[in-house]
Amino acid sequence: MAPSDVLTLETEGHLATLWLDRPEARNAMGPAFWADLPVVMAEVSADPEVRVVVIAARGPQFSVGLDLKSMGGILSGGGGGAGPTSAGARAAAIRAGVLDMQGSINAVADCPKPVIAAVHGYCIGGGVDLIAACDIRLASADALFSVRETKMAIVADLGSLQRLPRIIGKGQVAELAFTGKDITAARAREIGLVNEVFPDVDSLLAGARALAGEIAANSPLVVQGTKAVLTACEDRTVAEGLDYVATWNAGFLQTDDLVEAMTAFMEKRPPNFTGR
Questions:
Q1: pLDDT tier for residue 265 given thresholds of 50, 70 and 90
Q2: Are residue 228 and residue 172 in the same domain, yes or no?
Q3: Per-residue pLDDT band at 79 (split at 50, 70, 90)
């Protein structure tokens, strides 16, 4: 990957691990994060060897969210120096900055490969936006989650209010967003924000890798097709979704991996999928 001061990418076999790597700042999300995230996600999306992505964090916290010190200009519409002077120009600058950051988070959601978030410590504000864009969320027992923006006099604008209702339901999102309170990993598991809670960080990372391994063992074409169909069917009726997947399979069902699956079944052995 291109050099980054805040993100580190490691690949092992078919697994890519993207580390939030600014532990001294509790992985606060500053300009480098927003610039580098879509670049790294484009890289793993295009890499044919990568079948699954895990997003994890170095240091004691997953992320405390937006770096308010370095990103203050976005909130004010200034950006330092000779910024916009009229209210309209400042509003346009704020909107452009928010849209840029939304694009960075969207790069995670748009990744064609499954993305697993492995969360420990604080996951606040922008951290929740980030994990909401992932397909699966896991946590260690010490994780704390907060849609914190109302406590900072901000309307959450990077995806939590749009994605979380589909994950945990409108009522749960309303409670979290209106109060800005922290919830524990156990509560996050109870409401469906995370799939599983592990005792500590080591077991969390091991669990994320094990899950990634289970996914990577399947045909990557089919896994990515399944993600595409799930995404496409979010805003469709059941009938429309069934029609969509029928058309999808008509175009993508005939693969070498399908032949390998049937052959392996007949030969009573594990299949070896190649993504062809």
A1: confident
A2: no
A3: low
Q: H helices within 54-159, ranges in order?
A: 72-76, 87-109, 126-132
Q: Tokens 């790294």 map to which residue? A: 40
Domain residue limits at 240: 220-267
Q: Give the Cα separation of 204 and 198 in Å (integer).
A: 5
- Cα separation of 136 and 54, whole Å? 9
Give 97-124 pLDDT, tens digit per residue: 999 999 999 999 999 999 999 999 999 9
β pairing state of 122-124 and 136-140: unpaired
The CA distance from 161 to 159, in Å, is 6
What does the alpha-carbon distance between residue 191 and residue 210 come to, in Å, rounded to a whole number?
A: 23
Structural domain contains residue 275: no
Max Cα distance, the chain (Å): 73
Burial category of 122 from C-beta neighbours within 10 Å (exposed 0-12, middle 13-18, buried 19 and up): buried
